[in-house]
Write a structure and sequence with these properties.
The chain is 53% helix and 0% strand. The chain is mostly helical.
Length: 116
């Protein structure tokens, strides 16, 4: 894991990028990227609110994971329907319809193999 805060703290103290990369065990390119992004966003002084997670979000917002397209399943409902002899395939179709309503990227494009 990249230690964004430590990189910026050491850089503020005047430590060279090579020394920073050696001390935190990250590549020089990573250290350089973090420092350059902080400069671009004019982050000159670190405050207490600037944690590693916060810095990652601010410096590299495109790397922040988005929703995975899943919705939480009601397993009691699934088990009750299976007892009524409902098939998993039909239950999955219902799930896909609910997921499509909640997220633009449901898993309807994933085809499960048919095994007979």
């Amino acid at each position: 894991m990249i230690q964004y805060r430590e990189i910026l703290e050491l850089y503020e103290k005047g430590v060279s990028q090579r020394t920073i990369s050696a001390s935190i065990r990250s590549s020089r390119q990573t250290v350089s990227k973090v420092i350059n992004r902080a400069r671009e966003r004019e982050m000159t002084v670190l405050t207490d609110e600037m944690t590693n997670a916060w810095l990652k979000l601010q410096l590299f917002p495109s790397q922040t994971p988005k929703g995975r397209g899943f919705i939480k399943e009601d397993w009691r409902y699934v088990h009750a329907e299976l007892k009524k002899h409902m098939t998993l395939r039909l239950l999955h179709k219902e799930y896909e319809m609910r997921a499509a309503d909640h997220t633009p990227d449901s898993h309807s494009d994933i085809q499960s193999p048919v095994l007979f």
